[in-house]
């Protein structure tokens, strides 16, 4: 929790430092489609979905700061187990709450339509929920657990007025995925 507060404090500090920003701050919403790979792909659906809120702060002619928070579901699977003629089912689902901040370098200048490259760092709060049907003589039940993972996400994107699109790779310890975001932004403040 202390690390999370530190990240937001640093981002807030930079957000108020540059009075002569090129363009206006922007806020928006994005839809995300992700393709898990690595260890986590053994336990998730092949495609995950989510939504994030986005904040963009132009710092100078080519650099802007970004921040995002949201929710994603990576799905899950149902597993069946048979033993001595009894069948039990284990259902599980995996979700994530991303909290990230980063920097973008706009090739055509901040606030201008065009390509950008960048990256974000932050945290993902990963949750897994399970439910077991149980078998004769044994009760089923449900459990839930979560953990917080540090994440790095390099990205490349394209902005055009209010439209913001990007491709990214979220690199977590055991949960890595490739994703595509499409969002709509609008001026905020200034």
Helices and strands in order, then pairings?
Layout lengths: L1 H16 L7 E13 L10 E11 L4 E13 L2 E6 L2 E21 L7 E22 L2 E23 L2 E8 L5 E13 L2
Antiparallel strand pairs: 1-2, 1-9, 2-3, 3-5, 4-5, 5-6, 6-7, 7-8, 8-9
Please report the first level of CATH classification, the CATH class of the domain at 2-74 and 104-120 and 149-188: Mainly Beta
Shape: elongated
The helix content is under 10%
Spans of 5+ residues with little confidence (pLDDT < 50)?
13-21
- Tell me the strand order in the biggest sheet: 1-2-3-5-6-7-8-9
Kindly identify the CATH topology of the domain at 2-74 and 104-120 and 149-188.
Answer: Porin
Any idea what the radius of gyration is?
20 Å
Residue share in β-strands: over 45%
Helix vs. strand class: mainly beta
Largest sheet, strands/sense/barrel: 8 strands, antiparallel, barrel
Q: Label the CATH architecture of the domain at 2-74 and 104-120 and 149-188.
A: Beta Barrel
N/C terminus separation: 31 Å
What does this structure look like?
This protein is mostly beta strands and 190 residues long. The protein has a domain of 130 residues: Porin. It has one helix and nine strands; from the N terminus they run αβββββββββ. An eight-stranded antiparallel β-barrel has the order 1-2-3-5-6-7-8-9. The longest helix is centred in the N-terminal third of the chain and has 16 residues.
How would you briefly describe this protein structure?
The chain has one helix at residues 2-17; strands spanning 25-37, 48-58, 63-75, 78-83, 86-106, 114-135, 138-160, 163-170, 176-188. By secondary structure, it is mostly beta strands.
């Amino acid at each position: 929790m202390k690390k999370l507060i530190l990240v937001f404090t640093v981002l807030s500090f930079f957000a108020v430092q540059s009075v002569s920003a090129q363009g206006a701050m922007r806020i928006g919403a994005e839809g995300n489609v992700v393709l898990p790979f690595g260890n986590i792909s053994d336990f998730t659906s092949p495609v995950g979905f989510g939504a994030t809120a986005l904040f963009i702060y132009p710092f100078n002619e080519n650099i802007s700061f970004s921040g995002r928070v949201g929710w994603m579901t990576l799905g899950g699977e149902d597993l069946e187990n048979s033993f001595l003629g009894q069948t039990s089912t284990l259902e599980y689902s995996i979700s994530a709450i991303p909290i990230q901040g980063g920097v973008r370098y706009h090739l055509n200048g901040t606030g201008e339509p065009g390509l950008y490259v960048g990256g974000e760092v932050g945290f993902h709060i990963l949750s897994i929920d399970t439910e077991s049907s149980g078998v004769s003589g044994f009760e089923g039940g449900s459990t839930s657990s979560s953990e917080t993972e540090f994440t790095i996400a390099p990205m490349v994107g394209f902005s055009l007025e209010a439209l913001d699109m990007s491709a990214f790779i979220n690199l977590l310890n055991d949960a890595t995925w490739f994703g595509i975001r499409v969002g709509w932004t609008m001026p905020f403040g200034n």
